[in-house]
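Let's inspect a concrete specimen:
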Amino acid sequence: MSHQQSNCVISVMSNAPCPTNIKSIVEHHISVIQTFFNVPVSTFVISIILLIAVSLISFAYLFRYLLLHNQFIAQRAREHRREFNFAKHRITAWLSLFEHSPSF
């Protein structure tokens, strides 16, 4: 209610004086906001915005998948090296049993 003509942004937009009672102020501000969002937007602009949004989301998921996939491959490579070294150690241990065994 303390809005003056020079300080009320809504009144400047609508070229109407700011109302004095609370109900009129709320209705006035809501109607100006509604008219602000009633601007026609072409389907081309909407399709470009949707295309950009879908592209950003797909790149985010693709980056996440590739990052997790690389971590999975690195983990499997470490496990494979560990299993290979364990198998190599078992074969070496088994062959060492025959090193000093008597031949028949």
Remarks:
- The longest helix spans residues 43-97.
- Residues 58-104 form one domain.
